[in-house]
Write a structure and sequence with these properties.
Helix content is about 70%, strand content about 5%. It is built from eight helices and four strands; from the N terminus they run ααααββββαααα.
């Protein structure tokens, strides 16, 4: 018995979207692994050879929780073992890992800003309150997700295999709830970015920074602007994908994993750059990065240049 044309069309479209999602996820994971390989020697030198401090623990969490989760994602995309319940459980694990990574990354950035504000309490209050609000919005937005129901079908002698475990909005009228997660991330990043620029501009205007601190300020401004612009573009694209009615419901969460991976890459690069700029011959290496959260000594003497 021939498969009805409408069913054939629906199966082909669903299968094409599934393959596109798998390839996109695989591409973003390859980028993450490639960046790990490129920066591993600097990571060993600047992170693992140092003592066990809070920043090192935070680094371990956000750098490697993401990597382990993404490897699991690749396997999950191709394993034909999923039931609806097991897929929901796996998605909950992924959501929890993503939230841990996002929170850890935010804490690292917040401690950096707190350092350059010389541990001013009001800055910590503003950033911590924003982080708590963003976490609450993220948890609320995840309630709008469920496990996608993959179709089954057979066309002629060719079997279209639908395997994997993927997010899907629970209903079309809840896409705004899904998008709120990325809006919350944008708000948090904007607060951190504006405070960073505000303080660094003030430090530069004072004219009291040494050559080493000037190098650190340059790295902070350069990486901070780059991070903010890329994250704004990525999260803006997420909001558009989710909100535009012309985009298939199956493709709306497509960019989620790329957002996680690019955040890990950018923040990793930023803190490795800071450690590289704050050389061991200066006091800034311990005050700014080694013991993240202490004061930035803008007038530290230069031992060598």
């Amino acid at each position: 018995m021939a498969t009805p044309p409408l069913q054939v069309s629906a199966i082909i479209e669903a299968w094409s979207l599934l393959v596109a999602t798998k390839y996109y996820n695989l591409a973003t994971i390859i980028i993450l692994v490639y960046d790990h390989c490129l920066t591993f020697d600097l990571e060993v030198e600047k992170i693992w050879k140092q003592g066990w401090t809070l920043p090192k623990w935070l680094w371990l969490v956000f750098r490697y929780v993401a990597l382990i989760t993404q490897v699991g994602l690749v396997l999950g995309d191709h394993l034909p073992i999923w039931t609806h319940d097991s897929c929901l459980l796996w998605l909950q694990i992924r959501v929890s890992a993503d939230q841990i990574m996002t929170t850890t990354t935010s804490i690292m950035l917040i401690l950096r800003v707190w350092a350059i504000f010389e541990r001013a309490r009001w800055t910590m209050f503003v950033m911590a309150a924003t982080l708590v609000a963003q976490t609450g919005v993220s948890i609320w937005s995840y309630q709008a997700f469920t496990a996608a129901i993959l179709p089954t079908g057979k066309l002629s002698v060719h079997q279209y295999r639908f395997t994997g475990c993927f997010f899907a909005p629970k209903a079309p009228d809840r896409v705004g709830q899904v998008a709120s997660n990325f809006v919350g991330l944008l708000v948090l990043d904007t607060v951190i970015f504006l405070l960073t620029v505000l303080r660094l501009v003030k430090v530069v205007a004072s004219g009291k920074q040494s050559t080493t601190s000037a190098r650190l300020i340059s790295v902070m401004l350069r990486d901070g602007v780059l991070y903010f612009l890329i994250i704004c573009i990525v999260n803006g694209a997420n909001v558009l994908l989710i909100q535009l009615p012309s985009v298939s419901m199956d493709l709306r969460p497509l960019n989620t994993e790329f957002t996680v991976n690019i955040t890990v890459i950018l923040v990793s690069r930023h803190f490795l750059n800071l450690r590289d700029a704050a050389r061991p011959t200066t006091n800034l290496n311990s005050t700014l990065v080694g013991n993240l959260g202490k004061e930035l000594q803008t007038a530290a003497p230069d031992a060598t240049d």
